[in-house]
Design brief:
Two copies of one chain form a homodimer.
Chain A (H helix, E strand, L loop, with lengths): L5 H23 L2 H8 L3 H7 L3 H25 L4 H18 L3 H11 L1 H10 L7 H12 L8 H17 L1 H8 L3 H23 L2
Helix pairs in contact in A: 1-2, 1-4, 1-6, 4-5, 5-9, 5-11, 6-7, 9-11
The first copy, chain A, binds a DNA duplex (18 and 18 nucleotides) through helix 3.
Chain lengths: 204, 204
DNA sequence: GTCTATAGGTAGATAGAC
DNA sequence: GTCTATCTACCTATAGAC
């Protein structure tokens, strides 16, 4: 077997690493399992990525960026208030539906290495900056467009209503006695449910 | 050193195991670290608990029970609807504020071993059964007491608004530039914020 | 019951043939 | 570039002294 396109092996390794790390977490993942998943040899992992830690960082940064820019859409856009909320919910839920196991992975690894991860986010050019959005909320309150509400909690509410159903998927699946496919269908319907829930709560 | 009260050593081990498992997760926890945390020898762990897996199960079942019975309070009580919601939010948030690292641990380990954990819950006498509560929601809608809302999503909303701020604590702390003490203060205020948010959303 | 010492297994990482 | 074989370190678990 001659030499292959090196980008292909590297790509297969990254794909496999993403899959295994997301499923098992950093501590639970095995270099052996990543190699098997990629269909290559264990030694080759260390040829492309010196250490497990290096491989992890290569994929983690990329995964973080799957979420952070989506958050910035709401925080920094100039849309009218209710439209901004609706667009954020739809867009964020779509990302989550397409990556249902990602939230659990992110929050777990963030907790394992809080300062390291938080610093990585803050240094990133995609750093979430909710201040503009929270000021817009206060403006809406001040001008009587919505009821008085604490901007910090409204922001937390929006993210929580979208993200937790994916983090707690096993629990809700068990309580509702449904399978993965049915759960994702519920999440699809949920886009509109969340928007209605928030908008109704904000009306004067 | 003579023999000590055996319940004391066992208690210290369980305390230490709970702390280390919650912080590091099953895969990341080390028997050595648990022994050190308990102030006893590594060999003694295996005297009281044959295996790491056995020690884990000893504490995990107990931790699960910290949450499930609280959920049943809302699902099975006979309180008027809005009072039931308020009591649930206050009670559940109090549990979470007193155990802020528990949600991340539970959801991560549930995902690692979904069928095993879900079966353990379903077999438990504290099994969460949201059916009664969801039927009450439908009754409120039918009698025109609240706006039309999907009971499944209202139930998910209530849990999500309480639990996610703890799962995503590192993220929110980073975004808001605050420390742990300040974060818990926000969570204390949040009890009322969540109740207001839900009640306002349900009004006709 | 509590400790020390160590066995047995497996993980990440390296060396070297091809 | 890709593989096999192996090293070293660490982790769980056991054996045995006290």
């Amino acid at each position: 077997m001659g030499k292959k396109d090196n980008t292909e092996a590297e790509y297969k390794i990254l794909e496999a690493a993403r899959k295994v790390f997301i499923k098992k977490g950093y501590a639970g993942a095995r270099m052996r399992e990543i190699a098997d998943e990629a269909g290559i040899n264990k030694g080759l992992l260390h040829y492309y990525f010196k250490t497990k830690d290096g491989l992890f960082e290569s994929i983690f940064d990329e995964l973080l960026m799957t979420f952070a820019p989506q958050l910035n859409i709401i925080f920094e856009s100039d849309l009218p208030f209710f439209e901004k909320i609706e667009q954020f919910i739809n867009q964020y839920m779509t990302v989550l539906i397409n990556n249902p196991d990602l939230p659990s992975f992110i929050v777990h690894e963030m907790q394992q290495n809080e300062e390291k991860v938080v610093n990585a986010i803050l240094k990133s050019k995609h750093k979430p900056n909710p201040m503009k959005f929270m000021m817009q909320i206060q403006m809406e309150v001040a001008t009587g467009k919505i009821r008085a509400i604490n901007p910090v909690h409204l922001m937390i509410n929006m993210v929580s209503l979208c993200a937790f159903p994916f983090v707690g998927k096993p629990m809700f699946k068990g309580m509702l006695h449904i399978n993965d496919v049915e759960y994702l269908q519920i999440m699809e319907i949920r886009k509109k449910e969340i928007v209605d829930f928030i908008i109704n709560s904000l009306k004067i």
